[in-house]
Here is the input.
Amino acid sequence: MKRLLALAAMTVSMAVLLSVTTSSGQEPAADISAIVADVDEERLRAHIAAIDEPRSPLPEEIAQLEATADYVQSQLEGFGYDVTLQDVEFDSDRTGEIVSPNVIGIKEGSECPDRIFVVAGHYDSVPETPGADDDASGTAGMLEMARVLADVDLPTSVYFTGMTLEEGGPFGSRKMASEFAAQDAEVVGMFSLEMIGYTDAATGSEFILILGNEASAPLIAAVEQAKGYVPDLPIVVVAAAGNGESSPDTRRSDHAPFWDAGYQALLVTDTANFRNPNYHRPSDTIDTLDMPFAANVTKAMLATTLLYLTRDEDADGAADVCTAPLLATATAAPSATTAPSPAAAPSATPPAGITLPDTGGSDQRADSPILAASVVLGLLALGVLVVIRRKA
Here is the structure.
């Protein structure tokens, strides 16, 4: 147990926690609240139920992978989006050469359409698992966000993306990020919905982890603002140093290629195998998921998207994400003058009996349970500590 505690403390020391000040007493905007309230838990459940079958590149499962791509495409087209298929090549001894597409529903921006924001979940699974949490839940969240935002005017273009071949890769997001970089595309942000449906009340694991890197400070600030729109959801926000090179667990999803290309990106996760005992197993089924939790995570990221894309701090009538130099969208966090208070958010403090390590930081507020939990979590360290609690 001492070795695990040491590992947790070491992992924490690798993290850079971004302190985001919030204004007090400011209520969430009514229009954003109304949009967020439109998220439908039953629609999320229906999407997961439609695709939770083994869907990998293996010969015996590739038909289901293709059927899932067709399902994502039909749903996005049904919401009114033009859909682009970005082919991703894959070759292995077990699969042979195959091509599987990233399925992209494009919502054109009204103010700066050349600037792009990506909302993604991966629709493949590992072999022999229905992958309800990993990652039918994230794909469902992406599709529900696409539905809710279909008639909402947004300044930038939004690419609602069903990523392919994340497992063993990530191959789909690597293709997308590398092509964006080669085209000098103006990507202002991305987030990967990577397992958003599992909770464990017995260990206190009922929070969502949102992981960024240092360059993603503006997106992280928008998450902090969004907390006020989902007061029932404990949100733990952590930023990895650099691009997470010193902690490989922080790079285990479709956000990592976007970090490597110099774009802002967030990983949104229930912490995968650090929490979910069904991870990559045949038992990853829809009946194990917490659907109200998945709905709240979808609401949180919907609010984050709206706050980030519509912010106008200089009150010049134009969205900051359109007018700021592109590099500034990945380096400068906004001031806190427009942030709603997250004071109503529930505590995300660590399980009983866990002592917070001293990171030596001078800017962490002792009265903030979310930031305190972030310290314990470090770069997924809370998952380690949950294991400690079970074995103690």
